[in-house]
Amino acid sequence: MTDPSLTAGTRDTQTVTKDGAPITRTIEGVRIRSTPHHVDHRGSVFEIYEDLNDYWDEPIIYAYQFSVRPGQVKGWGLHERKRDRYTIISGEVILFLYDSRADSPTHGQSMRLVLSDRGVRQVTIPQFVWHLSVNVSSLEAYLINFPTEAYHHESPDRLLLPWDAPEIPVDVRAHLPIT
């Protein structure tokens, strides 16, 4: 006789290749990067910016630090002119992305990415891609943004929607930590 839990269980699905590369399709223009990280008996150093290269293809002109408190959600937000370039300093955040660009080959596609001080540390988010951050750790998460344009206080380049906006077909609630 088979235990009922075995027939009720669902088979786990592949999320990464044998080499650790994600198998999910990336939204057009979204770039992710695990930075060089050096650890020794004194502590650690990770490189954020090492001059213009394949990842940093535009100079840094503005930067700011922001945080997401444990169990909190920031977003949805979208920029029309600038790209965001996040670097996580500490903590763990699930970043949800949704491509609203009508002319994009990935229009209507969503993407889920974990930013962590132990894994993927950097992400570039193109214009017109909605993004939302959820802190899934018990500590405040700290990130630095290096947007491609300075913030304009008198006319912010940002559209906002509530985290549960029906216009974005992403079930954020399904990914929130169980309390």
Automatic annotation (TrEMBL):
Gene3D superfamilies: Jelly Rolls (2.60.120.10). It comes from the Bacteria. It comes from Microcella humidisoli. SUPFAM superfamilies: RmlC-like cupins. Belongs to the dTDP-4-dehydrorhamnose 3,5-epimerase family. This is dTDP-4-dehydrorhamnose 3,5-epimerase family protein. Pfam families: dTDP_sugar_isom (PF00908). InterPro entries: RmlC-like, RmlC-like_jellyroll, RmlC_Cupin_sf.
